Amino acid sequence: MSDKVDTQELGDEIVRVLKTIYDPEIPVDIYELGLIYDVFVNEDRDVKILMTLTSPNCPVAESMPQEVGEKVKSLDSVNDTRVELTFDPPWSQDLMSEEAKLELGML
């Protein structure tokens, strides 16, 4: 068995985990909401997630990034996880997927 990491496959696995985390105020997962700006995976299976929140005053500003980090790190194929929170660019409804907009009756 090879130790070579398929970063694309691992990235897909991480996205599946992210889709199990929901914003407490909006009944849509954080990935479809557009709160995940980027997921970086290196060959050492270290993961960096760049994410935002719907607002800087979001009630889950501390717990949401922590939950994201813990859930992703719980994957057997992940070595380490770092979650970086940014508000640049600020989140807007434009970042939501079509699926999220449909779910919320915006289409």
From TrEMBL:
Database matches in Gene3D superfamilies: Fe-S cluster assembly (FSCA)
InterPro entries: Fe-S_Maturation_MIP18 (IPR052339), FSCA_dom_sf (IPR034904), MIP18-like (IPR002744), SUF_FeS_clus_asmbl-assoc (IPR014291)
Domain of life: Bacteria
Residue stretches making up the MIP18 family-like domain: 12-84
Name of a matching Pfam family: FeS_assembly_P
NCBIfam families: SUF_assoc
Protein's UniProt name: FeS assembly SUF system protein
Species in which this protein is naturally found: Psychroflexus halocasei
